[in-house]
Amino acid sequence: MIDPFGRAISYLRISVTDRCDFRCVYCMAEDMTFLPKRDLLTLEELDRLATTFVEKGVKKLRLTGGEPLVRKNIMHLIRSLSRHLESGALEELTLTTNGSQLTTFASELAACGVKRLNVSLDTLDADKFREITRRGDLAQVMAGIHAAQAAGIHVKLNAVALKGFNDAEIPEMMRFAHGEGMDLTLIETMPMGEIDEDRTDQYLPLSEVRRSLAERFTLTDVPFKTGGPARYVEVAETGGRLGFITPMTHNFCESCNRVRITCTGTLFMCLGQEDAADLRAPLRASEGNELLSRAIDEAIGRKPKGHDFIIDRATRKPSVSRHMSVTGG
Ligand code: SAM
Ligand code: SF4
Question: How far is the CA of 301 from the centre of ligand 2 (A)?
């Protein structure tokens, strides 16, 4: 799968549910309406879809959401997908998770060949954690992280940088992550979906964060890549790696190798654009995968060059109307 700009598509992210046990303030509104269960692809359909993409050249598959580990019987899908790791067709099977269910699932994930996990964690303070997630329990997430590490899974922490919320805490979070052998990646907030708050109050450019960190730490750019959009530095004082995902301050689109599928089977060729292709209809139209494969090729053929995210006081509306929990992070 090669797009019109010559980029090979080798990385697929699938949102397996739009539901979540948290309501992070930058991601969801307090009273979200979730999709009726009948609109979701079944686990078997998700498997067929993922398998078709693997056959067409996807090497890295990330399950996300919503919270992927709250989808009923999710381990059934993960266990089934692990056959592509065993055959060598897939290089990596991984998840982005809020960590709340990891004490239950960590060892089974490891047994399925999951070697790395991204866990989202925006603060180390239990009260602030409850505030930002509107209901999460930090101790439960910490226990989940440790369970994953004990199972031999390499954990990377992801934190959304939020002005006035965790900016002062970033050095401490970095020391914590690096002290536990984890990379930390910082993410800029993206204007996706209506939330209850003003995004201009939350938006913190990572260029500013980097400048301020550089006053206290020695940061050296390193070419390390995980297949995603993060750019990394090494931090001499902690001996660890810090990643920056900067969709707002630095356009990361030129090296984009990704596409995303929602839990209803809609393929988004770009996180920051509305154009999409329905794969559920061709998936359900026949037992074979020919129609599906053709629909995928057509969609890749119109993958856009990049996104047009804007956050400023004049632009009140989100750049794209769907929430991040629809397409997944
Ligand atoms: N529930 C899982 C989790 O939190 O890791 C997976 C889905 S969540 C949508 C994936 C990632 O997207 C999380 O790291 C989250 O912090 C991030 N995210 C959500 N809304 C965002 C936004 N508007 N801008 C930037 N990142 C966002
Ligand atoms: Fe749930 Fe993840 Fe969104 Fe937080 S960021 S509400 S954990 S989907």
Answer: 31
* Helices first, then strands: H and E counts in the chain: 11, 12
Residue 225 within a domain: yes
Q: Ligand 2: list residues with CB < 6 Å.
A: 20, 22-24, 27-28, 65-67, 98, 120, 325
**Domain annotation covers residue 3:** no
The count of structural domains within the chain is 1
Please report, for the domain that includes residue 178, its CATH number: 3.20.20.70
Q: 43 C-alpha vs ligand 2 centroid, how far in Å?
A: 21
* Segments in the chain forming alpha helices (H): 43-55, 74-87, 102-111, 126-133, 138-150, 170-179, 199-202, 206-214, 280-285, 290-300, 324-327
Please write the tens of the pLDDT for every residue from 156-210.
999 999 999 999 999 999 999 999 999 999 998 877 667 777 776 788 889 999 9
Alpha-carbon separation of residue 210 from 175, 203, 303 (angstroms)? 15, 15, 31
Q: Which atom of ligand 1 is nearest to the CA of 193?
A: 23
Instruction: Provide the whole-model pTM.
Output: 0.91
- How remote is the CA of residue 280 from the centroid of ligand 1, in Å? 24
